[in-house]
Amino acid sequence: MTSDGTLELIRDFRAGRPRALARAITACESGNGARVVAELYALAGNATTVGITGPPGVGKSTLSAALVRKARTLGRRVGVISVDPSSPFSHGALLGDRIRLAEHFTDPDVFIRSMASRGHLGGLAGATADATLLMDAFGFQFIVVETVGAGQSEVEIAELAQTTIVALQPGSGDSVQLLKAGIVEIADIFVVNKGDHPMADQLRREIRSMLQISEHGAWVPELVTTQAVHGQGIDELWDAIERHAAYLVESGELEQRKRERFAYQVRSIAAGRIRALVDGRIDVGSAAGDPYDAASQALASLGIEE
Amino acid sequence: MARRLRIVVAKAGLDGHDRGAKVIARALRDAGMEVIYTGLFQTPEQIVQTAIQEDADGIGLSILSGAHMTLFPLVLEQLRAQGAEDVVFFGGGTIPPDDAAALKKMGVQEVFTPGAPLQEIVDFVERECGKRALLSS
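^ Those are the sequences you sent over. The predicted structure of the assembly is below.
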């Protein structure tokens, strides 16, 4: 982006033009966001950020839509970021999470952005943290970040969101699944969606018993049952989010999470740059040396290692 | 990091025939673009708001209901009202040649009808939306 273009973008952003927010996010996605973020960073820091993760088809988008509806009845301005996977082959993507949010498309106080993961692992896109920050700076008060349909280890959302909701669906595995490390460890709130399913009770029991035998801090993850498609359980979920938000403030954990989020952003920006540099220095032609050796050579040529 | 083309594929009005839209969405995806699919029964306002929030380079509107002479102009009107004429607007469906010519005169950049080769559509989108992406990056 030209320098003039960036100045104009920042001016439009400050004037509250949605197109400027949209373009600023694109700039970050394209690796040109450093200046925009630097100019707008000071405006951010007021939003509540809630992450929703869980396996594909569990109802993350439907839960998002229901939470957006609830937030709007309370008059909050809402941002939604929803991440879908990019193709590892064509690098294209089909982003379909908006479909569930159609009722909010023309509400000027709701801004929805679909992001393709672009090869980023961990359940988010490389620029999701930037997009969250920009929505915050734009004045959105409640931001929902929906991950890609997560497997067992896409846990990055917990580093970005203040409150992480892990949505699970009945009939998807036995109690041992809940004892495994990974995604079940990051939940501040568990949601059993599709609560009318015959196996919903069993899943609830398994989550409760898992919580009894697992270690957690002062916050004991809450368990809420929803039928998001009918809006059932959403008031209870909202209350749980508010309780968790209050806990974060009272315990001082909010400040700690903000510091962790900052570290996460620095780490991912720096790692992205190093990755790009290393990509240009991989010598696959040299018959000499094993992968460790070649990695050391690449880092040495960048001056990172001796 | 490259700037990827972002395209909204939309279905408007009372028209449940989405196979064509899905085939196009899939072809654009396979050509390396990021496709935002709106789902069925959208209003022109919803489609244009989606394109703005998603910073889309193009909107592809699929209509098989016969209402193309109503819905295409309404989307054009919305694009103008929102100052988003830079978004490439194209479409397709069961659209008679005379209507297609009229729509192009109004400002729809291309109209594809049944039998159009996918590669032709992909080439058009890459070329025209690529110009917009270049200007805005």
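Residues 280 and 298 of chain A are 9 Å apart (CA to CA). The interface with chain B takes residues 1, 18-19, 22-23, 25-27, 29-32, 86-87, 90-96, 98-99, 102, 105-106, 111-114, 116, 118, 126, 276 of chain A (CB under 8 Å).

Shout if you want it in another format.
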